Amino acid sequence: MILVTGGLGYIGSHACVALTQAGERLVVLDNLSNAKRSVLERLRELCPDAILDFCEADVRDRGALARVFAAHRVEAVLHFAGLKSVAESVARPLLYYDNNVGGSLALVEAMLAAGVERIVFSSSATVYGPPLSLPHREDHPTAPHNPYGRAKRMVEELLADVARAQPGFRYVALRYFNPIGAHPSGRIGEDPRGEPNNLLPFVTQVAVGRRARLRIHGDDYPTADGTGVRDYLHVMDLAEGHLAALARLRAGGGSLVANLGTGRGHSVREVLAAFERTTGVRVPFEVGPRRAGDLPACWADPSLAERELGWRARRTLEEACRDAWRWQCDNPAGYPD
Ligand code: NAD
Ligand code: UD1
To answer: What parts of the chain have a pLDDT lower than 50?
Structure first.
């Protein structure tokens, strides 16, 4: 059985579906700090009989973790639970160190106490900071430039130290690039609270009429069309990366830190064009100033994941746009309360 922390969130919920399709049985733990309970109903609908237990608890709650590990024979943990706003982490660093580092520490302690020695951790391309060269490779130096990214790097280091000290303990830290899209059923997707920070949810909310226009954050970057370039990958490809990581750990493979991205960058204008082409919906926009803290361009070298995990992103940007749009049309206001 697999314990999925943060399993009601955007990526965790898609991973639950991918795991279920692969025949896994799951226990989900989430404190609902950034998810609605109705996600669980949708998951139960998409994953009949696969979710054996849902525990509404904080991953920092050592008592709750001990109870979960006592009640279920957990073989491995997928650890998605965490806060993810860069801007909030700058304003409230202690919250991020407590929730994201403290939560991971409590989880690993509870795992070791219960004899559970395999974990897949949600890291981020943010750990790289400004690139020395592109694409980002795992052996590039890390220089995160905000507390969110530093907390991710700390957890990677924590896992590496535990793996060195504890024979048998093995982990895979996955450095996600930019997940977008939704499950093709349209039943689960990305449902940000308030104004979306990320590009694609903003685009879909404009397209569905919830917002007047997209603001492009700067078109004077040193990129082909002046707008920011990112490595967007379909969230179901990302979810499947976790299956590959789990398979590696089961097969006795060693600990690993790997990028999950497509290896291709797309500009904001290219994403807009792909969305309009795929959906036939026009998205009004205006060009504003650059967003503080943004990088001109960022994309992955995903070859290590292909070599070590046998994983690569298969879905196209157009498929991600189509699936994000289906989710947005079927759920214009997001998940029900
Ligand atoms: P999300 O906010 O949708 O999901 C995170 C889930 O964890 C939420 O359901 C939230 O309620 C839960 N959670 C948060 N703190 C918790 C705690 N202390 N105890 C229990 N549950 C808690 O975010 P997401 O986009 O699904 O991201 C999942 C993970 O991937 C996060 O660790 C995030 O930092 C990382 N990540 C995300 C992105 C991205 O673009 N979405 C990129 C890189 C890395
Ligand atoms: C942001 C986070 C990053 C996180 C990632 C995925 C910041 C500074 N960085 O990065 O840590 O890992 O999300 O969750 O918050 N854009 C617009 N208009 C918008 C929104 C975005 O033009 O309304 C542009 C951005 O300038 C960027 C691109 O779209 O060029 C992608 O933005 P976004 O989705 O926020 O991802 P990141 O900038 O990679």
So the answer is: none
